[in-house]
Structures are given as structure tokens and as C-alpha cells.
Amino acid sequence: MIVVASLGLVPGQSASQLGLEILAIGALIYVYLLIIQLKVARHPGQQRSWIVTRILGTQLAMLPLIVAGVSTVAHAGGGLYWLAPGVVLSFGAALIDAWVLMVEIQR
Asked: Can you give the pLDDT at residue 93?
């Protein structure tokens, strides 16, 4: 999200250019996270319910970013307003990750 906010500060670019940049970043992160999570899901001993909730949480956090890029390019559908739910969902996913790292990992 910091990268997307930084791209919004570039002077002189059109809304379509910003939308394409947001769409490219959102799509790259979405695919990257999906590849990593599918690799982890293939390991034996992983609980399916945990894997599904992790995949859904992170992927749902990235979808508003992609929608923001598409709607900004199309000049319809909310545009950059989609970034707000993306930020909130990303914070939620990060909070769950932090909880797992601090509490649920057994020593």
C-alpha cells in the first residue's frame, strides 16, 4: 500500500496511468501471494481450514486494489475509493499474521 500511495504522488500523470500502475501492482502481489500459499498448502500436515482462511484473507485484501486499478482506468465504479477497503483488509490480514507469529507458534 505504501508503493501505491507513492505512485499517487507522482506529478503530471493521468488517472489512467495511475490506474494501470495500481492494477499492475495489485495483480503482481495477488499472483505472488497465491503461488506462495499454494506451495504451502501442498505440504503434508497442514490443516485445510487454516490454509483456506489464510488464502481467503490475503486474497480478499488484494481484490479491492485490483478493482481500484480497473475502475480508475475505466473512469467509473468508484476509482481510488476502493483503496480504503483494501487498506483495512490488508491491516486485518497483517493483524492475523502477527497473532500467529506471536501467540500460535509453539516453541
From this structure: 85
Number of Cβ atoms within 10 Å of the Cβ of 45? 4
User: Which distant-in-sequence residues (6+ apart) come within 8 Å of 69 by Cβ?
Assistant: 19, 20, 21, 22, 23, 24, 25, 26, 27
Instruction: List CB contacts of 42: < 8 A, sequence separation 6 or more.
Output: none
From residue 79, give the alpha-carbon distance in Å to each of 61, 65, 66.
16, 10, 10
Count of the separate structural domains present in the chain: 1
Nearest 5°: phi and psi at 62? -90, -20
Using 70 as the pLDDT threshold, list the residues of the chain that sit under it.
46, 104-107
Q: Domain span at residue 40?
A: 14-104
Is 75 inside any structural domain?
yes
